[in-house]
Amino acid sequence: LWVAAHRPKGLLAITPSKNVGDPYRDVGYPGGIANIGFPAQWWNGFPRIWRTAADLAVKNGGDTECAKTVADNIEKIKRPELDLIKWLDNPYADGLYLERSAMLQSGKINIPTLGTQSWQDEQIGPRSGYYEDTIAPDRMWLVSSNGDHHTNITSDHIDQTLKHFLARFVKGEDNGFDKEPRVRLLQEMQTTDAKAPNGGAKLMPTGEARFDRLPVQVKPLRLWMQPGQALGDSAPTSGTASSSYRYPALSPQVNNPAAEGWPAVPASEKDGQLVFTTAALPQDLSFYGEGSADLWLSATAANTDIQVTVSEVRPDGQEMFVQRGWLRASKRALDTARSTTLRPWGAFTRDKDVPMVSGKPELLRVEIQKFAHVFRAGSSIRVTVDSPSQTGYWIFGNDKTPSTNTLWHDAAHASSIVLGYIPYEHAKTLPSCDKTMRQPCRKNDAPVPAGIGPRAPA
Q1: What is the residue-wise DSSP string for 332-397?
Q2: Are strands 416-421 and 274-277 parallel, antiparallel or unpaired?
Q3: Vertex 134 angle, CA 130 and 138, to 5°
């Protein structure tokens, strides 16, 4: 992205895959909360990798120059402007974050671009600074799916698309790629018995949806949190005005590669979450892209950190993970020029970091990371609000100040979530809990409301 934005002579096409376009919002501070897991793990691994390379160079060919280069590089990355960990000490989206945000330069790209993204990418997440929206629509293609950081290797579908693209725009073959759909959505990527080049299981989608324009045009579907922890398609008008939970509480990690899965909430921590669930859906509802949990929330502390999890409660009694989002309450101010109904864009600047006032409800718009998922008829949509917990390699340095957090759902403070609905062809059967990549299941232990759930927007 950086190179192509400079438009160098001779660069014919690029395939940006699993990118960080906005280092602050994408990975460093999701929702304004420090990610103390993956960035340090990734950055601190380089000296070890380099030293190993230097040792192999000496062992296999007597190359001592490599060791000198490694020693030089290890010293260089201690410079303040290069040391990732030092500039991640800044909790606000300014300074080096702006200088290092490729999404602010990607609009200059004028060559064919094919990007790939994975919704549950355990390393960099799926956000990518939304760089794909900045590139001219006639230059941009996108392949996305559920799954991890390595789908380019483990999916033949993605691998073949990349080869087809490069054959057209680098080798110059007249293979018709120009007429390919702008967006390919590989659905419910599942593991198979075959092995990929990296030793992982090969992935196979249950279906594919294709869209002819980018950004994909979706319809906002809004669901409101109701008294009694229901989730419905109309705003609340009566009943209990609010629901409270204890913060911080232990909430389950999900998709940690060292301990795959999604455990149940311990009984002792049930008072540390709020769960809102729709009645069973009368029809399939398919979603694509980002969303927004628009929560009216008060706290007894001056600050608190929010995690919102979207999941599918299935007729087979299983709850399947879909996606998450996060927000530090004091950093709730938005960049209004960039924010939309479906995409809250946090300002995250020092001057807009405002503490909560005890007991006063404030509107917190929590950005739900991009995803695509089909909630089948007979299933329910669930939204869980609790304390941030490990997600993939992401570990959150959340505020540990105890608080009673109250989510409001009365007529004057109607909390809701809005997701991007778009119909597309898909497999009719429920995806496998055991094989669907990075979307683990757990046994549902919360009631599903009676009645008929929401329908697709008109």
Answers
A1: --B-TTT--SS---B---GGG--PPPTT--EEEEEEEEEEEEEE-TT-EEEEEEE----BTTB-B-
A2: unpaired
A3: 120
| 220 Cβ neighbours under 8 A, 6+ residues apart | 341, 342, 418, 419, 420, 421, 457
pLDDT at residue 18 in the model = 94
Question: What's the rounded Cα separation, in Å, for the pair 321 and 441?
Answer: 6
pTM flag (> 0.85): yes
Residue 171 has a pLDDT of 97
∠ Cα 252 256 261 (to 5°)? 65
CA–CA gap between residue 238 and residue 451 (Å, rounded): 18
How far is residue 131 CA from its own chain's centroid?
A: 14
Confidence of residue 126 (pLDDT cuts 50, 70, 90): very high
pLDDT digits (tens, 9 = 90+) for 362-396: 999 999 999 999 999 999 999 999 999 999 999 99
At residue 194, what is the residue type? A
| Residues 20, 43: Cα–Cα separation, whole Å | 14
Distance of CA 11 to the CA centre of its chain: 30
Length of the chain: 458
Q: Which amino acid is at 401?
A: T
Contact 457, 421 (CB under 8 A): yes
145 phi and psi, to 5 degrees? Answer: -165, 170
CB 165 within 8 A of CB 217: no
CA–CA separation, 210 and 440 (whole Å): 25
Phi, psi (degrees; rounded to nearest 5) at 247: -130, 140
> Which residue type is seen at 80?
P
Q: Is the peptide bond before 440 cis (omega within 30 degrees of 0)?
A: no
- Give residue 323's identity as a one-letter amino acid code: Q
C-alpha span between 150 and 121 (Å, rounded)? 8
Q: Judge whether 274 and 229 are in contact, CB under 8 Å.
A: yes
